[in-house]
Amino acid sequence: MTVTAILVLAAGTYAFRVAGPLLRNRMARTRGGEAALPPRLTELMSVAATTLLVALIATATLTDAGSFAGVALPAGVLTGGVLAWRRAPFVVVVIAAAVVAAGLRALGVP
Amino acid sequence: MRSIWRTLDAALRRDLLAVVLAIGVVGVSFGAIAVSTGLPWWMPSLLSVLVFAGGSQFMVVGVVAAGGGLVAAVLGALLLNARHLPFGLAIGDVMGRDARRGLAARLFGSHLLIDESVAFAMAQKDPARSRAVFWALGSAAFVVWNLGTLAGALAGQGIGDTDAFGLDAAFPAALLALVLPALRGNPRTRNAALLGAAVALATTPLLPAGVPVLLALAGLVVLIPAPKRAEVPA
């Protein structure tokens, strides 16, 4: 690892992060005074972000380094998901997911 | 910062605290794992301050430790972080309101854009609350991630993998709890997200990390209105 590599990664990551807010600002401004985007575009961007989050959840839950993640991890997330669906408090969802995954692993489940 | 924290009600503060705590623990593990691969103690901290994106930090350290090339490691980590662009497009408004006053806030706030701050901000209905949640979680996460990294790097190899505590299940579950209301109430969003997740899962074994998640955007095709049948005049 070199400092140069870290700086390149940092600059690239920041560029990805800052591009969204700046582009959004520009799109709003070119439509004149009020910072308003067309509702269709706002919906599209919001659905896109939710879609990315769900894909992130799915891949983080079911895969590990490109292959199947085992049983404990999906079982933990599924427990959390069911609790969230039944409107359990957020903290309960998070702790239950961790406890189930950790418990199964302690029992030797992969 | 203080005033932002105070505008949040107790329940929301507790939710944020749970996520912040978990981020801190993973930060400790990152610092410990990074020095165990032979990096000097300050290098994981340099990554945590300047990059502040956990997945890509673990990835770059892991690839280099496994003997992979530095260029490949950095490119892979950048691919993993490309999702921040569409995230920023969706929530860019939570950082600062109007164009002139908001520029500094956008430049600074962009560095605090992480999966969790995006999901938490999007889960709020009121824009003022979204903004407060984004800044509160983003800055608290930045602080604990960096304190954790430093502590882990100094404590060294004694700290292992946090998978034993089930933290790898806690993060997806937290994100799921945050996006669930948007999926429950909106069939268009739900269909796009489910199709996107299927595409991401199907392509995960074939493509480098980060790309499958971006390909999930293909799920947005469900938003294209079905072509209306031409009305045949009787």
Topology:
The complex is a heterodimer of chains A (110) and B (234).
Chain A: H1 3-30, H2 39-62, E1 63-64, E2 67-68, H3 72-85, H4 90-106
Chain B: H1 2-7, H2 10-36, H3 42-50, H4 54-65, H5 70-81, H6 84-91, H7 99-109, H8 115-122, H9 127-155, H10 167-185, H11 187-203, H12 211-215
Oligomer: heterodimer
* Strand segment tally of chain A: 2
- Trace the largest sheet of chain A across and list its strands: 1-2
Q: What's the end-to-end separation of chain A, in Å?
A: 32 Å
Strand percentage of chain B lies at under 5%
> What's the number of helices of chain A?
4
Main pleated sheet of chain B: none
SSE series of chain B: HHHHHHHHHHHH
Instruction: Determine the fraction of residues in helical runs of chain B and give it as a percent range.
Output: 55-70%
Report the total helices of chain B.
12
Radius of gyration of chain A: 20 Å
Ranges of chain A where pLDDT stays below 50 over 5 or more residues in a row are none
> In what range is the share of β-strand residues of chain A?
under 5%
Total strands of chain B: the figure is 0
Looking at this protein, list some descriptive labels.
heterodimer, A: 110 residues, mainly alpha, 2 domains, 2 strands, B: 234 residues, 12 helices, globular
